Amino acid sequence: MLLKGKWKLSLTTQIIIASLLGLIIGAIVGPTMEKIQFIGNIWLRLIQMSIVALVMTSVANAIGNIEGTGAGKMSFHTFKYIIIFTLCSAFLGLALSYIFKPGLGIKLDIAVETTTNQFSDVSVIDTLVNFVPTNIFQAMSSGSTIQCIVFSLIFGIAAGGYARATGRKNVLLLIKDINSIVMRIIEMVMKLAPIGIFSLLAPVAGTTGFDVIFPMIKFLLALLIGDIIMLLVYCPITAFRCGVNPLKMPRKFAKMSIMALTTTSSAVCLPTKMEDMVTKFGVSRRVSDFTGPITMTMNSCGAVQCYVLAIMFMAQASGIVLTSIEILTGVLLAVMMCMGTIVVPGGSVVVYTFFATALGLPLESVAILIGIDWFAGALRTLMNVNVEVYFT
To answer: Are 366 and 285 in contact (CB under 8 A)?
Structure first.
């Protein structure tokens, strides 16, 4: 029993192994691997079927349970900087996607059924009007994710106000329970991730060969360059605000950076970050205790940059040219997914599937992104954790 437990592989390790095997076996066997693609398609559908319910309950639950934490000068400045720098990071990711074009070089067969693109050649005003649903049940059935999010935001505000006015939290508890059940469904589906990813990645490698590896490297390189640019901007500003010698900044960030790269988890890095903010950057304990947990939840400068790159990667890999409105909508969705209202147990698999469904992009490219997600996750977390110090 001890031996069995000792050699048990984590899900992340299984996914990395499945991705490598998918690339190697697919490239060796060739187009014949397309015969197993239906297995991966079924796995993606199992995730898709829960996305609308997950997003709506996550948003409504988060908004409905906000108490008074948003009040006060400290909160205002914290949230202001989070929003500003999240947007900056998102548009930096967009710029890098045009420079590196990470999706070029992959030839995807777009035979898999995807959600009909919600955005035709309409004006910006019409697009904004269409963000508001006329029938929420129709929006849910058609997978109109933005309309579902808008309704959930309003519903969450109303439910929270009702609970505070009457003292009855039955609705909020019901939403939380439904959210927990949907998360449990996705956790069950994620146990099949190695099989699903192999079944999706092998056919792509079978038709493209080892040429698929170069775009994957370009994606990670673009994300790395984005990290470097952001940190070169934030480190001197943080040094100035904290009264620290800029030349000492790399050493002060070292411990947090190593934790971020090795754990790929902002939550795991939280205690180290909060302690370093006090002992290394001279931040007061009161400020650290307030901003630490909030920025861990809401700040995702690294994630939003990665998500925007992922959206453009999926579009470029499938030869789809997104309109300006579609790109801006993708940026908006990426920012919303990173603002602490939507927490998903399936991580990037669910997020990438969400973007593909919302923007009408083919789902095959999701497998490619997941194949390198551990490395992308390390780079995302590195930026998230280090930039959070600035918001103090």
So the answer is: no
pLDDT in tens, 370-382: 878 878 888 888 8
- Mapping DSSP onto H, E and C, the string for 43-67 reads HHHHHHHHHHHHHHHHHHHHHHCCC
Name the domain count of the chain: 1
Answer yes or no: are the C-beta atoms of 369 and 251 closer than 8 Å. no
**Residues making up the chain, counted from first to last:** 392
What does 350-375 look like in DSSP terms, one character per residue? HHHHHHHHHHT--SHHHHHHHHTHHH
Residues 6+ apart with CB under 8 A from 202: 21, 22, 23, 25, 26, 29, 33, 36
Whether the CB-CB separation of 150 and 131 falls below 8 Å is answered with yes
What is the average pLDDT across 294-322?
84
Radius of gyration, CA atoms only, the chain: 21
CA 33 to CA 367: how far, in whole Å? Answer: 14
Residue 333 falls within a domain, yes or no? yes
Question: Which amino acid type is present at position 277?
Answer: M
pLDDT in tens, 339-369: 654 445 456 777 888 888 888 888 777 878 8
Query: Nearest CA to 59 among 196, 170, 129, 160?
Result: 160
The amino acid that residue 378 corresponds to is: A
Residue with tokens 């919303």: 336
Residue 6 lies in a domain: no
CA distances 25 to 45, 206, 209, Å, are 24, 8, 10
Q: What predicted TM-score, i.e. pTM, was given to this entire model?
A: 0.74
Residue 112 belongs to some domain of the structure: no
Domain harbouring 143, CATH code: 1.10.3860
* pLDDT for 71: 43
Lookup: tokens for 179: 């959210």
How far apart (Å, rounded) are the C-alpha atoms in residues 274 and 285? 8
Contact between 293 and 270 under an 8 Å Cβ cutoff? The reply is yes
Q: Look at 237 and 72; give whichever has higher pLDDT.
A: 237
Which H or E element spans position 333?
A: helix 324-337
